[in-house]
Specification:
Elements (H helix, E strand, L loop, with lengths): L26 E4 L9 E4 L4 E7 L2 E10 L7 E10 L7 H6 L1 H4 L17 E7 L2 E8 L10 E3 L3 E3 L1 H10 L5 E5 L28
Keywords: Cell shape, Cell wall biogenesis/degradation, Glycosyltransferase, Hydrolase, Peptidoglycan synthesis, Transferase
InterPro entries: LD-transpeptidase, LD_TPept_cat_dom, Transpep_catalytic_dom
Family: Belongs to the YkuD family.
Length: about 200
């Protein structure tokens, strides 16, 4: 699962998983929930992302999450998907760490050193970009930790796998405690307009 991906626009080397607890590797697991199949559930405290499959099962991926005070919580939709996205630090990130992010305020082109990795899923609420993303990472060792500036990091092969499984409009539930046990949201409004231009990105 974590070998090289030579056919990518920027060929990916094998992912170094040697410093990561094996429980954070992609696997199918029992996962009873009221959420319908196709829903993404992000379990922030346990550092897991679940793609609900139905029949009490889910695909589970290990994730890295935001530092204390920077986590996203609540419900969103995948409003946009991008392969090898461009990265731009948010104004909050630049203000918080000017020495680190100030020189990058103009953005970073796609590639193996881009913090978003090979794929990004953009989280929207009420048709508006939240600036939070589910994306790859240049720091495989960070999976299972709370080190990001708020976004949800995945191993690069895992975010490619998830990207290929979910469409725009997918419901995303990000929890900080118990798994959600509420009925699903109504179907996404097909008239929701997505921006044509790249929005600032957090990671």
């Amino acid at each position: 699962m974590y070998g090289p991906h030579p056919d990518e626009a920027f060929p990916l080397p094998a992912t170094d998983i040697s410093k990561v607890d094996p429980r954070f590797l992609r696997q199918q697991v029992p996962y009873p929930t009221y959420e319908p199949p196709g829903t993404i559930v992000v379990d922030t405290p346990n550092r897991y992302l679940y793609l609900v499959q139905g029949d009490g099962m889910a695909l589970r991926y290990g994730i890295g999450v935001g530092k204390a005070g920077l986590e996203f919580a609540g419900e969103a939709r995948i409003g946009r998907k991008a392969q090898w996205p461009r990265w731009i630090p948010t104004s909050d990130m630049v203000a918080r760490e000017p020495e680190r992010y100030g020189p990058l305020a103009g953005g970073l082109d796609p590639g193996l050193t881009n913090p978003l990795g090979p794929r990004a899923l953009y989280l929207y609420q009420d048709g508006k970009d939240t600036l939070f993303r589910i994306h790859g990472t240049t720091e495989a060792w960070s999976i299972g930790k709370a080190v990001s500036s708020g976004c949800i990091r995945m191993f690069n092969p895992d975010v490619i796998d998830l990207y290929n499984r979910v469409p725009e409009g997918t419901r995303v539930v990000v929890i900080q405690a118990q798994p959600p046990m509420e009925p699903a949201m109504p179907p996404i409004d097909a008239s929701m307009q997505m921006p044509a231009e790249e929005a600032p990105l957090a990671f």
